[in-house]
Design brief:
Elements lengths: L2 H7 L36 H7 L3 H10 L11 H11 L4 E5 L18 E6 L5 E6 L2 E6 L3 E3 L22 H5 L8 H36 L7 H8 L2 H18 L11 H7 L5 H19 L3 H13 L7 H24 L8 H37 L15 E11 L4 E10 L2 E7 L7 E8 L3 E6 L2 E3 L4 E3 L2 E6 L5 E5 L3 H24 L5 H15 L5 H4 L1 H8 L11 H4 L25
Antiparallel strand pairs: 1-2, 1-5, 2-3, 3-4, 6-7, 6-14, 7-8, 8-9, 10-13, 11-12, 13-14
Length: 593
């Protein structure tokens, strides 16, 4: 089936709200059919709007009812250019930014880094493509056009290990004006980095001036808290990126771009790029708030008027707000490609190599923080399943379950032993008791503040403090009160796992302090509220226990030292459909037993 026929017979799929990624953002500056009325303080200048195109509602309806696409006619300048190349018989390749997992046989699945032959880009949201013998639809937002279209396909996907080109022939072929092919390829990548940065700055400026500035003038429609939720710290990102692009331009060699030395710029700003973590973590909240607001027509009209007045391309606000998430995930790809075409003798080689590792670390840190934030919902659900809970919520002090398991606790004064379930979080150890009949039900008993404790390994034999014989034992000793807690595991290996877990808990606390990781009060309250709502769905306790069973038998994965591309770039992958928590529990980040 040819792609032309496929477009006629296969139904196009529409993205739900906030799940489509903006395409064509590199094609800024297209002329508008409308003039640019001024938005005055406090409200939209209705007179200015009406003089040209009527009210906000009229402007919006005119936009929706017309067949024109403001900003990129025909669905986008990029799409037009691609289809012209395809119609001329050229082969156009795109590179996957992240995984596209699908169970639909009409869609094309791929991994981050895969190269897709684009066969039809007529539609703005979904393109038709081919990988080997497979063809199908794929989201245009999941890919970027390959910078060097004439490079052999077998050279992809890009990998750091393959950056040093052993093919001497590719390094000696000439590409006009004395440049080698490799130099020309490096020129292409440098030009793309510079041009996309400039376009990105324009994009951030449009959001800050076109949306945020106008929203602040409408106190009757938006509170400051709402604006913080919708736009996050994008203004901080804008200020950071303005400085970054100036640094890049200083290092850009206009006459000989392949001689540019840009690696040091990424190294200089690697710490500042960590501000993207806050933005990425907040992005799901922004999508939810926008979804709620756009159910009211006046907000739809207002946002559309802001876009048109700022002369921005035809993408909804949620699409614009996704681009910072994309951007921070795109840097490692660009740097890997740059390193591939940088000779080891080039003055920029070592800096680009270091910059690639640095930006991967930034992406890894953002992914880790995102995982931690997702975990707080699971912790809240776990707490809601515990009977007779007392005291503050776990999330007040903790955000990570480090380890859990069954231990024998021995207490003074009669050395009474009790079988208990223990859950080690950062900062605290929670003790629970199993129900005598229903062993899947837990009752809250106590907790221990780990910040005050030191861990003591106890040899097998008689313990002098408790005057009893112990095996596989260890103690928690409070430095302030001299209080001692004695625990026994069933097997030596279980004891060692607990001792290792206590080390990991202290290491996690220290890392959080060093990186400044924290969870906002709003996020904590929302997690507990969501758990409370699930608890009141009318389901009996027994139905919610599979989560406990899952928690008991799964292992909590540790972050590897090196991540494959699909993991590094998983952060920005738009979710296709909301999933039911209990039906998809095995797909969530598991806890360690």
């Amino acid at each position: 089936v040819t792609s032309a026929i496929a477009f006629d017979i296969l139904p196009l799929k529409l993205h739900p709200f906030s799940q489509s990624t903006p395409t064509g953002l590199d094609c800024m500056g297209w002329k508008r059919r409308i003039s640019s009325p001024v938005i005055t303080d406090g409200a939209l200048d209705k007179t200015a709007l009406t003089d040209d195109v009527g009210s906000e509602e009229d402007l919006y309806e005119d936009f929706r009812s017309s067949n024109h696409r403001y900003g990129h006619p025909g669905g986008g300048g990029e799409q037009l250019a691609i289809n012209e190349l395809i119609s001329d018989g050229s082969v156009v390749y795109a590179e996957a930014l992240w995984d596209h997992v699908t169970m639909d046989d009409q869609e094309l699945g791929f991994k981050a880094g895969d190269v897709i032959e684009v066969m039809d880009a007529t539609n703005k949201e979904w393109w038709w493509g081919r990988i080997l013998d497979s063809e199908g639809w794929f989201p245009a937002s999941f890919v970027r056009l390959r910078v060097n279209q004439d490079e052999p396909l077998e050279d992809y996907p890009l990998k750091v290990e393959g950056c040093k080109d052993d093919d001497s022939s590719s390094g000696t072929r000439r590409f006009g004006m004395g440049q080698t092919t490799k130099d020309q390829m490096r020129t292409n990548v440098i030009n793309e980095i510079i041009s996309t940065e400039r376009d990105y700055i324009k994009h951030l400026k449009d959001i800050c001036e076109g949306y945020i500035k106008q929203c602040r003038k409408r106190a009757d429609m938006f509170t400051e808290e709402q604006l913080k939720t919708i736009f996050g710290n994008i203004e901080d990102i804008y200020r950071c990126q303005k400085k970054f692009v100036k640094a890049l331009e200083k290092k850009f060699n206009k006459d000989h771009p392949h001689l540019s030395e840009v690696g040091s710029c990424f190294l200089e700003y690697q710490t500042e790029f960590q501000i993207y973590s806050e933005y990425c973590n907040n992005h799901p909240n922004a999508c939810m708030e926008l979804s709620r607001l756009t159910k009211v027509n006046k907000y739809v009209y207002f946002f559309e008027a802001c876009r048109l007045l700022q002369k921005m391309i035809d993408i909804s606000l949620d699409g614009f707000l996704l681009t910072p998430v994309q951007k921070i995930c795109k840097y490692p790809l660009q740097l890997a490609e740059l390193l591939k075409y940088t000779n080891p003798q080039h003055r920029d080689f070592k800096d680009v190599e270091a910059a690639l590792n640095a930006m991967k670390n930034v992406a890894r840190l953002i992914n880790e923080r995102k995982r931690r934030l997702e975990n707080i919902d699971k912790i809240a659900q776990w707490q809601s399943s515990i009977e007779d809970w007392e005291g503050e919520d776990v999330l007040v002090r903790s955000s990570e379950l480090i380890y859990s398991g069954e231990l024998t606790k021995i207490s003074h004064p009669q050395a009474k032993s009790q079988q208990r379930m223990f859950f080690l979080f950062d900062h605290q150890l929670v003790c629970c008791k199993k129900d005598l009949l229903r062993r899947d039900i837990l009752y809250y008993k106590s907790r221990i503040n780990m910040d005050d404790m030191e861990i003591l390994d106890v040899e097998d034999g008689k313990d002098k403090d408790f005057n009893i014989s112990v095996k596989n034992a260890f103690k928690l000793h409070c430095r302030d009160t001299e209080e001692v807690h004695l625990f026994c595991a069933k097997k030596p290996e279980q004891k060692q796992r607990w001792l290792k877990a206590f080390e990991n808990e202290r290491r996690q606390v220290q890392l959080d302090q060093e990186t400044g990781f924290s969870i906002t009060e709003v996020q904590k309250k929302q997690a507990m509220l969501n758990a409370s709502k699930q608890q009141h769905t009318g389901k009996p306790k027994a139905v919610t226990r599979p989560y406990y069973d899952f928690l008991m038998r799964q292992k909590h994965p540790t972050l590897p030292t090196t991540l494959p591309q699909q993991q590094v770039f998983m952060l920005a992958e738009p979710k296709r459909k909301p999933s039911n928590f209990w039906q998809n529990i095995s797909r969530l980040t598991p806890f360690r037993k």
